[in-house]
């Protein structure tokens, strides 16, 4: 052991040979991994560390469209300190303008834990004051003392909210806080209104939340109560972070996989540069294991240095993102180093390095000295034993990826897809070399020289094909997906969607509402449907609260769901199993479900579903499953009841208004706010803009992660060309001796790189486009409409970058003078 380490120390004193490529590839890949995992971990750390403050208590119990009964209030008081709030969306009037807000009436001492942070002013003191969100204040230039109208209530702004407890994380409207008397003054809380009553509870010191929520649900099984514990605080943010982080992690792992090719090339070049040293040491009695330790120590030292650099870069990403985009995130990332994420990234990097480096090092340490000392080419053959360690390390990488995955099936599919693509590009590289050999006797001298370089001994055609192909395929796929989604958000949605959605229209004001719309929007397509809300409380008689976990895809069990009743099948819906009821149906309660949600719950026609409406359980038999075109932008409900069941319950109406293109809805919105102030108006353009901003941020993160993969691919290409420097130097010198000019030698190498990159780039474009088409059409259920000009430029740009990188890497070998080279070659 000591002999091997001593040899390593002396060997490193002479330089690192070709290990700079290992350092570059591993540092970039680990930096990408560490950045992705650290950012996701830092957001989760913020949520976990401040869960009580984010939730506003140790526990939150909420119910839709009603308040707790006297008996339920007594049961809540038994649990601890209770703070009540009632939340709904409404339209606020600011001078002659309107804005969608999330209005909350809060009780004294709210919240039960944590606090509302104000940028200025104070909390409401009395029914005529309101605290408003910073976004609303900045948009309409409001400050303390400014007037504000919500519903029938008139308020004075008392303070500007900087932060407040938000159990869900994301919100599509800025908050407005008033006290419960102020909420009553708005007149918005009426039977059938879409509001939620929440009761945040601070438990006694040392008390655990385990089992309290489910026990309360079992005590009031028909109440429709929803439980949110500290572990579920900012649940929407947590799910978004986990899924986004998972996607970025897969891209970063792909970049590391590409980097492994460069690592293998670097270690192979390093081992080749030590052939003479190894031969001399063996002649003097050195053992193979000491030589393996010598080479391995050098590689390990560089790998550790590269990993440290990558971890250092990744550790600062949460702090940088928090400072640059803190206002765009629901929670501020924890700026402290995320040691678990950094350790995970380091382990990935070192395992991949071990898998890529072991075989060339073992083969070099086992080489016989005689052929080397005679000046022969490397004759060391591989052994099956050399594959044991790489296979074990590779299996560990896959196992670690699956263990840390939030969605194992997707991760496994991505890994399998990556191996399939790598095999495809390896086969393409092999075929390219065979084709070049078959065509070697054709064309002019320069063409023959360029094609011969693709299949000569030691050519890196296959390795470069895999690295270039994987990186460009990933870039094309993500560009195609992003372009299609942006096209849908920027063109199709605004073109097809109605201009306005309106909520909480009192059923008894339908005629008034229609008359107002006919006056202000005479040519608009106006549609109204009844609307209620209620949670699913049981499936086939089994309480939802008894489920250990909500299955993936069973989103209809998460919180309250929008409900409606209809005689006719809505536009954009299609029955795929069962039958739709007759328009004049009269009988026991029937329900129709979204087919995807039904499959997630393993439901079948004839099963029963229980929904709590205003605390009253309604059990209905499933009559049909439907596919829903969510892009129809109509009223799409996952749960639709047959006529005769919900009509007697208090309900409101929802409406859409689609005026002719170019028509303004401002006059209608102002008139509606004056005549029916309880109606909430949502501009579709505002929602699309907010969603687009989120997706653009996600797209930027994905492009950055993809750029890491491309950067590694370029490094692999440059490193592989540099690794053949001695061979290229010899060829350049010989060609110059027989009269070739530097330009002709450069042209021959350009033909080599163009032939290799041209075929691979075309295949990568096809593979990436096919992958993007599958994701967009099958997973997102959107039309595949990428930005074709930009997409077609990617393979051209990829070819230019590949050829330019390769020529730059080969240039030093072309500049060598024959006399100088002949003394050293």
From TrEMBL:
Q: How does it sit in the membrane?
A: Multi-pass membrane protein
Q: Where is the ABC3 transporter permease C-terminal domain?
A: 250-367, 705-816
Which InterPro entries has this protein been placed in?
Answer: ABC3_permease_C, MacB_PCD, Membrane_comp_ABC_pdt
The places in or outside the cell where this protein is found are: Cell membrane
Q: Where are the transmembrane segments?
A: 12-36, 247-270, 291-321, 341-362, 383-402, 408-433, 700-724, 745-772, 792-814
Sequence ranges assigned to domain MacB-like periplasmic core in this UniProt record: 24-186
Q: Which UniProt keywords apply?
A: Cell membrane, Membrane, Transmembrane, Transmembrane helix
The protein's superkingdom reads Bacteria
Name it.
Answer: ABC transporter permease
What is the scientific name of the source organism?
Sphingomonas swuensis
């Amino acid at each position: 052991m000591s002999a091997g380490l001593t040899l390593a120390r002396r060997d490193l004193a002479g330089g690192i040979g070709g290990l700079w490529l290992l350092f570059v590839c591993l540092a970039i890949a680990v930096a990408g991994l560490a950045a992705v995992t650290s950012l996701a971990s830092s957001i989760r750390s913020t949520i976990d560390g401040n869960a009580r403050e984010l939730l506003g208590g140790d526990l939150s119990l909420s119910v839709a469209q009603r308040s707790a009964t006297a008996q339920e209030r007594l049961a809540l008081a038994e649990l601890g300190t209770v703070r009540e709030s009632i939340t709904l969306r409404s339209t606020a009037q600011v001078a002659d303008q309107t804005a969608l807000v999330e209005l909350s009436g809060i009780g004294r001492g709210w919240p039960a834990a944590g606090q509302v942070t104000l940028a200025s002013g104070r909390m409401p003191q009395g029914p005529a004051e309101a605290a408003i969100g910073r976004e609303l204040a900045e948009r309409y230039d409001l400050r303390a003392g400014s007037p504000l109208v919500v519903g029938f209530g008139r308020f004075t702004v008392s303070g500007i909210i900087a932060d407040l407890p938000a159990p869900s994380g994301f919100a599509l409207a800025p908050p407005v806080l008033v006290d419960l008397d102020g909420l009553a003054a708005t007149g918005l809380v009426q039977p059938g209104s879409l509001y939620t009553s929440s009761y945040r509870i601070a438990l006694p010191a040392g008390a655990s939340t385990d089992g309290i929520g489910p026990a309360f649900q079992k005590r009031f099984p028909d109440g429709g109560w929803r439980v949110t514990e500290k572990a579920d605080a900012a649940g929407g943010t947590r799910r978004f972070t986990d899924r986004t982080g998972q996607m970025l992690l897969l891209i970063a792992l792909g970049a590391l996989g590409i980097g492994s090719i460069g690592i293998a090339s670097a270690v192979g070049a390093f081992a080749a540069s030590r052939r003479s040293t190894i031969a001399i040491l063996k002649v003097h009695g050195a053992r193979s294991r000491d030589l393996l330790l010598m080479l391995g120590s050098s590689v390990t030292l560089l790998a550790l240095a590269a990993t440290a650099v990558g971890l250092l870069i990744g550790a600062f990403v949460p702090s940088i993102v928090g400072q640059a985009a803190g206002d765009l995130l629901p929670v501020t990332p924890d700026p402290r180093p995320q040691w678990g994420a950094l350790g995970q990234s380091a382990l990935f990097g070192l395992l991949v390095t071990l898998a890529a480096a072991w075989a060339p090092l073992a083969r070099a340490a086992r080489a016989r000295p005689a052929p080397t000392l005679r000046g022969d080419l490397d004759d060391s053959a591989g052994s099956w034993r050399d594959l044991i360690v790489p296979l074990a390390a590779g299996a560990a990488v896959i196992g670690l990826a699956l263990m840390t995955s939030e969605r194992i099936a997707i991760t496994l599919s991505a890994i399998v897809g990556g191996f399939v693509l790598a095999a495809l590009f390896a086969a393409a590289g092999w075929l390219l070399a065979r084709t070049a050999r078959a065509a070697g006797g054709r064309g002019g001298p320069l063409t023959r020289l360029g094609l011969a370089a693709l299949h000569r001994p030691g050519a890196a055609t296959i390795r470069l094909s895999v690295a270039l192909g994987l990186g460009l395929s990933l870039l094309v796929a993500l560009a195609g997906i992003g372009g299609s989604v942006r096209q849908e958000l920027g063109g199709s949605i605004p073109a097809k969607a109605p201009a306005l959605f309106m909520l909480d229209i009192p059923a008894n004001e339908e005629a008034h509402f229609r008359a107002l719309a006919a006056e202000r929007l005479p040519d608009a397509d106006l549609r109204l449907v009844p609307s209620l809300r209620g949670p699913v409380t049981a499936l086939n008689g089994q309480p939802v609260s008894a489920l250990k976990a909500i299955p993936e895809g069973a989103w209809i069990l998460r919180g309250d769901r929008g409900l409606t009743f209809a005689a006719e099948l809505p536009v954009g819906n299609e029955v795929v199993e069962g039958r739709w009821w007759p328009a004049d149906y009269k009988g026991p309660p029937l329900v129709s479900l979204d087919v995807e949600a039904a499959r997630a719950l393993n439901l079948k026609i004839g099963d029963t579903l229980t929904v709590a409406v205003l605390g009253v359980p309604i059990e209905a038999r499933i009559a049909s499953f439907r596919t829903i075109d969510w892009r129809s932008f109509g009223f799409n409900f996952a749960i639709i009841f047959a006529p005769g069941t919900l009509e007697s319950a208090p309900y409101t109406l929802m409406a859409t208004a689609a005026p002719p293109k170019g028509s303004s809805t401002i006059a209608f919105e102002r008139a509606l706010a004056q005549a029916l102030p309880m109606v909430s108006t949502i501009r579709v353009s505002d929602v699309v803009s907010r969603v687009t901003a989120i997706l653009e941020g996600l797209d930027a993160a994905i492009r950055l992660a993809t750029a890491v993969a491309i950067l590694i691919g370029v490094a692999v290409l440059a490193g592989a060309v540099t690794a053949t420097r001695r061979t290229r130097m010899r060829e350049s010198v010989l060609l110059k001796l027989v009269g070739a000019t530097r330009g002709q030698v450069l042209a021959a190498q350009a033909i080599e790189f163009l032939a290799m990159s041209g075929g691979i780039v075309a295949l990568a474009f096809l593979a990436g486009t096919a992958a993007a088409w599958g994701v967009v059409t099958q997973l997102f259920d959107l039309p595949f409409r990428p930005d074709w000009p930009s997409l077609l430029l990617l393979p051209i740009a990829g070819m230019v970058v590949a050829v330019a990188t390769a020529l730059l890497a080969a240039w030093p070998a072309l500049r060598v003078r024959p006399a100088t080279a002949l003394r050293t070659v």
